[in-house]
């Protein structure tokens, strides 16, 4: 059975009433939901409702109840204060973006020291209904808050795999490891799409992003092993001077590692950045990884 995170289903909200004063209002809440013909389940001091119900409840509770003595969560995520409920409700547009697959793939070249194109990195961008662009930080923040991170990440991966058939070059594809709960279930569709397109697995490099948010390194290693055993390569993104990142390099042994853009741009004029870049290069040689520099935009930095 697939997890709910894999599908764009209607969200379920649990609202906990922590004070006795708020709990005395439960009969009135039940009557309110009945009049509105909305679904509501009550278990002790917890209320369970769909998104429309949560929207109506927020209107009802404001001015009638103590919001500071309530908390909510979505799909068994962490508890959040009621003051954040409205911001979750305002992200409903994200569901339509995913369902309608309003995604565009772009690519940027990865070149060798001889300036020959070695590979492409595929970038995903999203559009609103009117065609205007949605910034990545906006849509991924909404997905994280809404519990849609896996669904969005999956859409990006599947679209990028299909796009790689056009590129016909080694393709770097970003993915967020914290969105994947089980490699066997979550990554099966990616493997299937590559097989459908008759693309050799060695053409793909799956790039781990948001490295600083990876708390369970063993889980990450399981994901990367799953890819590796099927012929895919993997890269570690945004490598810098932090201890946690360097320690992770030793543990996961990536095939490629990318120097963070903040240490690349201006490296020709900044001695501190040069030292970090040199340490990065030495680390790559130590673990047998191919080193990449991200975001070079000047001839001086390239040299």
Automatic annotation (TrEMBL):
It comes from Kurthia gibsonii. Residues 87-303 form the EAL domain. Signal peptide: none annotated. It holds the Pfam family EAL. PANTHER family: CYCLIC DI-GMP PHOSPHODIESTERASE PDEF, SIGNALING PROTEIN YKOW. It comes from the Bacteria. This is EAL domain-containing protein.
């Amino acid at each position: 059975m697939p997890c709910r995170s894999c599908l764009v289903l209607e969200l379920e909200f649990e609202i906990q009433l922590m004070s006795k004063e708020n709990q005395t209002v439960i009969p009135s809440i039940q009557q309110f939901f009945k009049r509105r013909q909305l679904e509501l389940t009550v278990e002790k001091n917890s209320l369970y409702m769909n998104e429309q119900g949560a929207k109506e409840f927020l209107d009802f509770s404001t001015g009638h109840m103590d919001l500071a003595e309530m908390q909510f969560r979505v799909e068994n995520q962490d508890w959040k204060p009621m003051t954040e409920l409205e911001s979750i409700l305002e992200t409903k547009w994200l569901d339509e973006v995913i369902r309608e697959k309003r995604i565009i793939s772009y690519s940027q070249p990865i070149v060798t020291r001889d300036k020959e194109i070695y590979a492409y990195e595929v970038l995903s961008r999203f559009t609103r209904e009117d065609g205007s662009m949605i910034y990545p930080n906006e849509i991924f923040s909404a997905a994280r808050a809404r519990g849609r991170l896996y669904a969005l990440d999956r859409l990006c991966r599947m679209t990028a795999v299909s796009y790689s058939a056009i590129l016909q070059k080694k393709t770097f594809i970003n993915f967020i490891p914290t969105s994947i709960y089980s490699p066997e279930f979550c990554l099966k569709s990616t493997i299937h799409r590559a097989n459908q397109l008759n693309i050799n697995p060695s053409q793909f490099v799956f790039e781990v992003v948001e490295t600083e948010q990876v708390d369970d390194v063993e889980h990450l290693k399981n994901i990367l092993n799953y890819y590796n055993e099927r012929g895919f390569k993997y890269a570690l993104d945004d490598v810098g001077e932090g201890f946690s990142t360097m320690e992770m390099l030793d543990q996961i042994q990536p095939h490629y590692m990318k120097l963070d853009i903040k240490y690349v741009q201006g490296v020709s004029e900044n001695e501190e950045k040069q030292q970090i870049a040199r340490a990065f290069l030495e680390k790559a040689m130590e673990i047998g990884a191919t080193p990449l520099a991200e975001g070079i935009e000047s001839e001086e930095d390239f040299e």
